[in-house]
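Before a colleague's protein record goes any further, I have to sign it off. My question to you is simply how this chain folds and whether the tokens agree. I do not need a full report, just your reasoning and any doubts. This is what I was given:
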Amino acid sequence: MKRILLPVTSNLTLFVISILLLGAFGITYYQLFLDRIEISDAIIGLGEMVFMAYIICLCSYLGRKVHLKILFYILLFTIYTVNRYLIYEFNTDMTPNILRLFFETNSKEVSGFFQTYFFTMATLKTVLFVGTLMVITIVGEHYNKHLTKIMSRPVPMCIMSLILLFGAVSGIGTIRRYWNLTQCKKALEAELWIRDNRYAEMPIPNLCYSIAAMNLAGNDLNYMIEATMESLKDVEPVEGDSLNIVLVIGESYNKYHSALYGYTLDDTPFMIQEKEKGNLLAFTHVKAPHNMTSVVLKNALCCNNVHEGEMWHDYPYFPAIFKKAGYDVWFWDNQYQVGPNMPWSFTLNSIIFNEKIQQLSYTAINDSCFTYDNELITDFEQNELSKIGSHNLMVFHLVGHHIPANLQFPHNQENNIYTINDIKDKAPFLDNDRRQEMADYANATRYNDKVIKHIMDMVRETNTILIYFSDHAEEVYDYRDYYGRTILGKEEITPNLIKYQIEIPFIVWGTDKWKQTHEAEWKTIGEAVDREFTTDNICHLLFRLAGIKTKAYKPTRDLLSPTFEPQSKEYDIASLK
């Protein structure tokens, strides 16, 4: 028995600290103080921690000559520090969405993240908490020989034997459930695994799930490619006169901060002008299927319907259908960073810019990104506009209002229009810093309005219809002291969260030439402005406008169809992948 206990008795500090870093604090806090988990789940979780801590001590003992213990400390503290910060700042454990955000982040967004989140109370709390554990670890290791002598006494040996027996019994279940994770074939199966095995604030199972889910997402891409290729078999070529369809996808646009939707500041003068001319229609009841860009675009660019529980990876990618029908498809994305060292394997960009998807879907894509969105449009106008054919789908994915908003517009006299003095909201939590963020958001909205005008002017003399919507919205101190988005799934999805993070602006604009040749269609669009719609069904509207005949088209999901079914059915927003 002494031989079995030796890895622990000779590494008591490592054993105890491992259990704490593996989640003992969270289990205890949630069970004893908040009563959010069952006592049985708490016991199972603690047993798993004891089992893992013993494995760590055993490996450390066997590898003591190469100082393996130091490596374990580094890994455990790193994982725990990240997880603890996420809990303090965002009220979430490690998730695939967090890892995806990490992989999708470019240098500009890193700068924005640190400006927004680094110097916060969450950072201070994390440093103090983790720092205390580090001090305990150092002191424990300093007196390790003394602790080993204490553990060699009969009573401590007996207690430790019982603890390890508890861990050994728990280890059987631990090995089985991690084996089950390795057997998952789809990201949804991994999601069900973590739902059935979620123990409060345990970083290792959440990290393993997140890695597995992202890996399985690559399999989902293959399913989507297969569905896309199958759908192309029945697509008929388009006929008729030349036509341009422009799809503009914005970013983090809160419509309640838009003058077009009644905001007090005049931050959308060009769109309002187009509306007054009778060229633009603003829809009132449109929602995003989620509040995260990668989730929204996967569901919007594929032909599935989230209201019916359909998964994006089981349905075709609609730009490929446009290309097969005879359209030139141009995809200009200002959130895509080209570079061989960028880890796009498990991100949205690995789907949109997958080699096979590019071959099936696009005539051309941009090969660089720009500081500001207007530069992206200028790049297309100067280098590609003269190359467009008779039928074109032009997709522009903008940076828009991405947090922090002060990075999304040029800081000059022309664009620094609003200041803290223009923010008249009397909410008690608004200080000058928060008012400045609101002013910056208004300036970003005004700049976005100019970008939309630039796109409109670029095609104004052609037969073109344009659709603009934001991927999702974002709170900007609307009803509480909060700027940003909630990571869905950890807190209750409230009506206010839906209103300010899920409701989005949605506009349709037509050139004079298009309206003259599509009078009945323009009237139908005007009659549909109050319909309830979510953008996961945008492809059906686009198929209709483009005159594309495909089995992927569903009239009941087409916003303009007389058989359209309003998208008012509830669905599990937090479960979408």
